Amino acid sequence: MIVLVRLDVAPRMELMGDSAVLHWGDETFKIPRLKHGILFVMSGYIGSQLYGCEYKVHLDYMRGRIVNRSILDGLIEHSRQLGVDEEGLGIELGWNPVLINRGEEGVYFFNERMRNWIGYADFSKPYIQEASLVMVRRDIPILGLPDLVINVDGKPAYIIELKTTGGPRRTRSLMTRELLQAESYYHMMRYLGLDPKGVAVVKIVRGTDFRIIDNMELIIKYMENGDDDLVMLTSNVALHKIKVRSFDDFLKDVDYALDYWLGLRNPRPNPSRRLCSSCEHRKRCPYSAVK
Ligand code: SF4
Q1: pLDDT over 90 for what percent of the chain?
Q2: What distance in Å separates the CA atoms of residue 231 and residue 218, rounded to the nearest whole number?
Q3: Would you say the CB of residue 288 lies under 6 angstroms from ligand 1?
Q4: Ligand 1 centroid, distance to 64 Cα (angstroms)
Q5: How deeply is 122 buried, as exposed, middle or buried, from its count of CB atoms within 10 A (0-12, 13-18, 19+)?
């Protein structure tokens, strides 16, 4: 992989007729033609493709996604937890086409996210919300958006991914795809020349009194001490520390996921009662375990 990564300058995407390029410092990558016309891959897709249901990702692009009340409540809770503006979430209840990484909307979204480029962040602050990370693999940009990076001694130290749930029981379980999403941020930061010390997923019941950005010291304390993978910060908030795999293992998963976007293989269905019962495509999906 020969990529001259630049931390001091954010990459920028440009549409050129039917195709698109990524400018990054002195380099220009011609983005290959990808399935469903996407221009970049969100790093969270990799875990969903491998450990959720890839066929659902495929149908999301073919048919759209349903935004329901709990998705909207989760976004609002994210905003409250991270202290960011919830204006402009830009999604509505019901069926929504996936535009985030396609066409002009995709280019706009990508370039707007570069305002929060990790290389422009002030690491002397206690934390950074929603920084943008990019890596390039097989000329395909991969965009990662970790919820929180906690700085210690003027350096980015701990990456926190926030997941919201409806009740306390669910805070204790961590899905493999959630683990992979958090791990992707760790590897992407190292790819960019940064040296984070650890990564965790915080699972939190929506509406609880606890607020992550008011409890930085507590989170740092548990990230720095103790071997437990799971720490209950309150009865409604669980901290799952991630044991990060090697970069090579991560890249194998990335390449498997990219093979689908490059059209080198078909999407893989992963039907189960657990996944299908919460899937909006279950009535039409030929593989559904719950019709
Ligand atoms: S219904 Fe089941 S198999 Fe079909 S896309 Fe949804 S999760 Fe996958």
Answers
A1: 82
A2: 11
A3: yes
A4: 14
A5: exposed
Residue 287 CB less than 6 A away from ligand 1: yes
What is the atom index within ligand 1 of the atom nearest the CA of 59? 5
- Could you say which DSSP state residue 130 is in? S
**227 pLDDT more than 80:** no
Q: Whose CA is nearest to atom 5 of ligand 1?
A: 56
Determine if ligand 1 sits within 6 Å of the CB of residue 281.
yes
Shortest-distance Cα residue to atom 7 of ligand 1:
276
Range 24-45 burial, b when 16+ CB lie within 10 A, else e = beeeebebeebeeebbbbbbbb
Give the rounded distance of the alpha carbon of 49 from its chain centre: 13
Distances (CA, A) of 141 to 31, 90, 144: 8, 23, 10
How many other CB atoms are there within 10 angstroms of residue 76's CB atom?
Answer: 15
DSSP 213: G
Please indicate whether residue 275, judged by its CB atom, sits closer than 6 Å to ligand 1: yes
* Sign of the four-CA dihedral 212, 218, 220, 223: negative
Q: For residue 56, which atom of ligand 1 is closest to its CA?
A: 5
Q: How far apart are CA 47 and CA 56, in angstroms?
A: 13
Distance 137 CA to ligand 1 centre (A): 28
pLDDT for the residue numbered 92: 75
Q: How far is the CA of 52 from the centre of ligand 1 (A)?
A: 9
pLDDT digit string, tens, across residues 63-79: 998 888 888 888 888 88
Q: Which domains does the chain have, with CATH numbers?
A: 12-51+66-265 (3.90.320)
